[in-house]
Design brief:
single chain, alpha+beta, three-stranded antiparallel sheet, 10 strands, about 30% helix, elongated
Length: about 210
Amino acid sequence: MTSLVMPTSPTRKMRCFRAFRASTIRAESNPDALLLLQHHHRLRFSQLTLKINFCQWCGGPTKHDIPEGEEKIRAICTLCGKITYQNPKMVVGCLIAHENKVLLCQRKIQPSYGRWTLPAGYLEIGESAAEGAIRETWEEAGADVEVQSPFAQLDIPLIGQLKKPHFSPGPESLDCRLFALDDIPFDSLAFSSMLVTLKLVCIIFKQ
């Protein structure tokens, strides 16, 4: 799995990210514009992916449809039901601090079902790191965040800020809540990268 760090100075990707966010905000007040924007991003995604006709596990024929609980078209095996994901094996997510607490999600899927993690997941083809981190945070925690700066060269590279103190579990989360630093469930974290990241958070925030 490849780790990623966002650049600290403005780059073309960051300018594209700002343009994406600006267009999204404008579209929110115009339903027709929002539908057009969503169609544009779906078209961009489809142009960057290959059509997969056969399952990589059992060799069965695939159908191209949107799996339950998802938003993008995937290749789904008609025999074994497995889904083929085309995306970079790069994890992006947000470290969200609000009122001296850290937002964590309790996983609703394997691996590490029931354990706690920062809102994060795989980057999609055609996304910048910032776009992917914001999307994953919305999908897993229902939280609207604004990316501020890089945090660490780990699987969780971004630090986010809640725009509003509202969040709720997404389809892949059993629960999500804000933890004070002394209350973080270190013995129930989903991944080793989360342990490293949150230990670093405690060291920095307590200085």
